[in-house]
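go over my protein:
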Amino acid sequence: MNERQPIPLCGWENSHSPADSDLMVVAERELGVFMRAVTELFGAELARLAAEDWIDELELMDALPGPTGRDWGSVTVAASAQLARRLNLQRARCVD
């Protein structure tokens, strides 16, 4: 089982190790897939907001997920929950 990497987020952006570079590639790939799906389903504006939510969720984590895309799913799920809340609020405003 892959475990989370004990790398504090505040130090990640200043690190240049190969392992951290690999994590950056996986994170970018996961975010890109998420954004493409949201764009296709809901449009570019919601995709931009969802990407911001995804980054916010990543920043809330105590440690970075592991080196596989599967490990990053918790970030995407949390951002998806934010997207669902946003969509529900938009629908509720349309009904009122």
Q: What stands out?
A: The first helix runs from residue 9 to 12.
